[in-house]
Write a structure and sequence with these properties.
Strand order of the largest sheet: 9-8-3-2-12-1-14-13
Number of helices: 5
Radius of gyration: 22 Å
Helix content: 10-25%
Largest sheet: 8 strands, antiparallel
Number of domains: 3
Order of helices and strands: EHHEEEEEEEHEEEEEEHEEEEEEEEHE
Structural class: mainly beta
Distance between the termini: 41 Å
Mean pLDDT: 87
């Protein structure tokens, strides 16, 4: 089925709750970016509204859930030009030495030397090391990379620049608002009615999240759906149904780099970088990998057989929400965050590597339809 890429531009700060309790003792912390399930729900609702579908009908709900959503990715808009932004890969370390500029250091799996030990979750996994002998400390940098930077990283593991703050975009600005209800007689705050909420603002601002007037460039969200699924001009997104404008686009969705697409039978290593969070039955381990051998076939491929050698991922993130159909909260599950990196040996089926590009690799069928676990494919020059 043919697909179309859409740009969603939030017209107000998005409210994206974390699922934690929100009361007088609660916190207003927002997610850093919309989850795939949030975008899937918004797109399917917009499609249903445009077709005037009956959301109380179980068959209608089943058909809507079967619509495959790919995304979300970030995007930067300059006048009429739209460029995708990809999450920072975890095999890239932002660091600095005292009294020196921040720089970028890659990470890569290596065999351990005699006498070394690592408490990894599987005996066949390799530890991931910084590719430097300098004593460095972590520092801050952009959380989203331009497509040019990501393409270079996937092909060569190198970047043209060495500044962590000049790779793309730091992310949406956190918009903190204070709400209060006043007593009519005294105009003082009513007890228990003083609280804060935090949203994500995609309005144009300078690097670092400090607003300094309007700029030519702005940011939005990219998703890809089957053709003609989004005919509306606006949709509601996140908590409180904040409005987003919808713009269909052509030739914007990231394409596999040429060097990666031409991998042949002599290339035995690839990196999978998650462009969206993934949900695996084994936590860090995809359920399609054998528990003992760490070998398996991704859901979107038939002949491609991979063996996991190493992975680099930050702390897991929770995902829950509210089930509108059953009118009850969803169970909390663990997500592998976007940007996590998995190093694989290609055992068979090199011709199917291109079929894996941005096709979801999460274990559950509904999670794949919602867009969890879209992989970017990079070259791994094995040195083990």
């Amino acid at each position: 089925m043919s697909t179309t890429c859409y740009l969603l531009e939030p017209r107000a700060p998005l409210v994206l709750r974390t699922g934690r309790p929100f009361d007088q003792a609660g916190d207003p912390v927002s997610l850093a970016f919309p989850l795939p399930s949030t975008m899937a729900g918004a797109c399917r609702t917009a499609h249903g509204d445009g077709k005037e579908l009956d959301f109380t009908d179980s068959e209608t709900i089943s058909r809507l859930r079967s619509i495959a959503i790919q995304g979300p990715l970030a995007a930067v808009v300059n006048d009429d030009t739209v460029q995708p932004l990809l999450p920072r890969p975890m095999d890239c370390f932002y660091c600095r030495k005292p009294d020196q500029k921040a720089r970028i250091v890659p990470l890569s799996p290596q065999e351990m030397k005699e006498g070394e030990y690592a408490g990894l979750p599987h005996p066949d996994l390799l530890p991931v090391f910084l590719q430097t002998t300098d004593k460095v400390k972590p520092t801050e940098g952009d959380g989203w990379w331009t497509w040019d930077n990501m393409q270079s990283w996937l092909e060569d593991g190198r970047l043209s620049g060495d500044d962590p703050a000049g790779l793309g975009w730091s992310g949406p600005v956190r918009d903190l608002r204070t709400h209060v209800a006043l007593e009519p007689e005294s105009l003082a705050a009513r007890t228990g009615m003083l609280f804060q909420t935090e949203g994500l603002s995609f309005a144009p601002c300078s690097h670092g999240g400090i607003f300094s007037g309007w700029h030519n460039s702005r940011h939005g969200i990219l998703v890809r759906l089957p053709t003609d699924r989004l005919e509306a001009s606006f949709c509601r997104l996140g908590g409180e149904g904040r409005i987003c404008s919808i713009h269909p686009l052509k030739d914007v969705w990231p394409r596999m780099p040429d060097r990666v697409e031409k991998l042949d039978n002599e290339s035995t290593g690839i990196r999978i970088i998650l462009a969206t969070p993934a949900i695996f039955a084994g936590g860090w381990r995809p359920g399609w990998l054998d528990e003992k051998t760490l070998e398996g076939t991704p859901p979107s491929c038939v002949a491609l057989r991979l063996r996991l050698r190493a992975f680099a991922a930050p702390r897991w993130q929770p995902v829950s929400g509210w089930d509108l159909e059953k009118k009850q909260p969803r169970a909390v599950r663990r997500m592998i965050p976007a940007g996590s990196v998995y190093w694989f040996e290609v055992l068979a089926g090199h011709e199917e590597i291109r079929s894996l590009w941005l096709q979801p690799v999460s274990d559950g069928e509904q999670d794949r339809l919602d867009g969890f676990g879209l992989p970017l494919i990079g070259i791994w020059e094995k040195k083990i």
